Amino acid sequence: QNPNLAPARSLARAAEADVGAVSRWTNPQLGVSYMRSFGYTTFDPEIGVPQVGVTQLIETAGLPGRRRRAAAAERDAARLEVRRAARSVALSVTTSFVRLAVARQRVAILREATQRTQDLAALVTARVAAGTAPGYERTRAALAVRASQAALADADADADEARVALDLAVGPAAVGLRGEPRVDLADAPPLPSLEAALASLPGTRVALLVTQARAQAAQARVDVARGEVFPGFQLYG
Q1: pLDDT tens digits for 170-210?
Q2: What is the helix (H) or strand (E) element at residue 48, kind and residue range?
Q3: Distance of CA 188 to the CA centre of its chain
Q4: pTM given for the model
Q5: N or C: which end of the chain has fewer CB within 10 A?
Q6: How many CB atoms lie within 10 A of CB 171?
Q7: How far apart are CA 99 and CA 147, in angstroms?
Q8: Is 50 exposed, middle or buried (0-12, 13-18, 19+ CB in 10 A)?
Q9: Can you list the alpha helix ranges (DSSP code H) found in the chain?
Q10: Is residue 12 predicted with pLDDT exceeding 90?
Q11: Is 227 in contact with 66 (CB distance < 8 Å)?
Q12: What is residue 230's three-state secondary structure?
C-alpha cells in the first residue's frame, strides 16, 4: 500500500507492454494522391485521376527482434527498480521503527529518573524543613527536578516525531499500528567481515543490478540504431 511503490510498478507494467508493442512490424501507411490533367488524354480524359495506395515497410534487418531485445532489457531494469523501491521502503520502515523503539525506551528511562528525582527533592525539602540541611539544597533539588522534566519533555517530543516518521514510512497501512514497538534493541545480528560484505555486493545490491540492466538495454539500443541504417525496403500497391 505504500505510495512510493506505485511509480516503479507503473513503469514496470508499461515496460512489459512495450515488449510486445515494439516487436511488431511497422504499421502500413495509407496514402491518397490526386494528379490533375493538363490536357485531354486517354489516361486523363477530363480533369485528373485520384490514387489510393498502401505502403508497407518490409524490415529485412531484423529490427523487430532487435527492438524486442532492447525492450526486454528495459523491462528487466524496470522490474529491478520495483525491487529497489521495495527494499528502500523496507529499510525506511525498519529504521523508523528502531528509532521509535529507542525514543520510547528513552522516555521510559527519563520518566523513571524524573520520578526518582522528585522523590529525592521531596526528601531534601523535608530535611530542610527539619533544619538538618541548608536551604540552598532545596533550590538545587528543585533545579534538578526541572532539568529532569525538561529532558523528559524533549524525549516525548522526539518520540512523537519518530512516530510520525514511522507512519510516513509505512504509508496508509500505518493506521493499523497500535501500542508500543516490540523489538529487542540488545539483539543485533553479527556483522560480516568487510571482505565478505564487498564480495556479496554484486548479488545483493539492487542498484548495481539495475545499472547492469540499464547498460544491457543501452547496448541493445545501439544494435537497434545499427539496424536502422538500412531497415529494409518499402512495398507500395
Answers
A1: 988 888 888 888 888 888 788 889 998 888 887 778 888 88
A2: strand 48-59
A3: 26
A4: 0.70
A5: C
A6: 15
A7: 24
A8: exposed
A9: 6-22, 63-130, 135-170, 194-199, 201-204, 206-227
A10: yes
A11: yes
A12: coil
Distance CA 54, CA 236 (A): 6
CB 44: neighbour CB atoms within 10 A?
14
Amino acid at 56: Q
Angle between helices 63-130 and 6-22 (to 10 degrees): 180
Closest C-alpha among 77, 89, 67, 62 to residue 14: 77
What is the C-alpha to C-alpha distance for residues 162 and 155, in angstroms, rounded to an integer? 10
pLDDT for 151 equals 95
β-bridge pairing 232-236 and 29-36: unpaired
Predicted pLDDT of residue 43: 63
Q: What is the pLDDT of residue 77?
A: 92
Residue type, 158: D
The residues, any chain, with a CB within 8 Å of residue 93's CB and separated by 6 or more, are 166, 169, 170
Distances (CA, A) of 118 to 114, 131, 145, 150, 221: 6, 20, 6, 13, 73
> Phi first, then psi: what are they for 33, rounded to 5°?
-135, 160
Q: Locate 146 and state its grid cell.
A: 526541572
Distance CA 15, CA 76 (A): 9
Say if residue 41's pLDDT is above 70.
no
Query: Is residue 38 very low, low, confident or very high in pLDDT (cuts 50, 70, 90)?
Result: low
